[in-house]
Amino acid sequence: MKVRNLEITSDCEYLVKQLLDERLCLLPKCNLPIIERNQLMYKHLTYGIDLYTKYGANILQKIVKKLWLSDDCNYELFSSVVDELLLNEISWIQICGLFALIDRLSIFCKKSGRIYIAKIAAENLIVYIEKNLRIMEFLEKNGGWVNILDNQVVYEDIEEFKKIILKDGLKIIVLSLLCLWRYW
């Protein structure tokens, strides 16, 4: 079933606004319509965010810091920083990672009184997903946001993500040891 870009974009906007409402406790709420499908998508997205945060916290921390330190969080900065989160092949867990970035940034911005950065970053995320052909093709190919509901897919993605993180970590350790050995 081919999903239209408009549906993908509107679902993305819903998920981003729902995440911001929940994390920032915005008043008044954006009064999004309560649709069971949307609630399930959001529930499973937050599950994916939790998984990504658990296994990719070290990646998220440095990226959140870069965005928080900027005063305007412009799109160019946002897209260059977010590109660091995406690996060669797009997966559901990487998409959850994009939302995990907004989640962590929102929490940090709320504590420090810089909520406007989280709002700008959230808007930038929507634009980023719309403009990123790899993400849009992935979402179209996989039937849109509703298929994030399949926990097995997210679980398989996280297992692959953990392997990639482990490989990258080992590469960094080996390179560090080589540099240490060479220059010592």
TrEMBL record:
<dbReference type="GO" id="GO:0042981">
    <property type="term" value="P:regulation of apoptotic process"/>
</dbReference>
<dbReference type="InterPro" id="IPR036834">
    <property type="entry name" value="Bcl-2-like_sf"/>
</dbReference>
<dbReference type="Pfam" id="PF00452">
    <property type="entry name" value="Bcl-2"/>
</dbReference>
<dbReference type="InterPro" id="IPR046371">
    <property type="entry name" value="Bcl-2_BH1-3"/>
</dbReference>
<feature type="domain" description="Bcl-2 Bcl-2 homology region 1-3">
    <location>
        <begin position="60"/>
        <end position="145"/>
    </location>
</feature>
<protein>
    <recommendedName>
        <fullName>Bcl-2 Bcl-2 homology region 1-3 domain-containing protein</fullName>
    </recommendedName>
</protein>
<comment type="similarity">
    <text>Belongs to the Bcl-2 family.</text>
</comment>
